[in-house]
Amino acid sequence: QLQLVESGGGLVQPGGSLRLSCAASGFTLDSYAIGWFRQAPGKERKGLSCISSSGGSTNYADSVKGRFTISRDSAKNTVYLQMNSLKPEDTAVYYCAARWQAMCAWRNNEYAYWGQGTQVTVSS
Which of 9, 55, 109, 113 has its CA 20 to 30 A from that of 100? Predict the structure, then answer.
């Protein structure tokens, strides 16, 4: 069974950092581009960052550029999202998703596999 599991969310103060993990089971991520998305209450799910299957290409939404870093570890079959300088407006449920393509995409419907999400709350 193909599964993605996010972890690493939690409560953090403004200006703090978190590292989210997206671990795959039942398949290897090497052939998949991986995206990170988030959904705040009452809002649509939006793409934040994406990494190509090779790891050679990364993309970021303007809202997180310079603060978030996406990376992948093939040995651990895991993709990470390092989040620094967190702001209250970063509060949301964060999802990772996989598409069986080399290159990134931004639209939700271009990803076939999704994790269950992890809550990130930025508050003092």
Answer: 9
CA atoms of 85 and 16, how far apart (whole Å): 6
pLDDT tens digit string along 50-80? 999 999 999 999 999 999 999 999 999 999 9
Distance in angstroms (rounded) separating the CA atoms of residues 111 and 63: 21
User: Residue 86: CB partners within 8 Å, gap ≥ 6?
Assistant: 12, 14, 15, 16, 17, 18, 67, 120, 122
Cα(73)–Cα(66) distance, integer angstroms? 21
Q: Which amino acid is at 40?
A: A
Name the token pair of 42. 């009452």
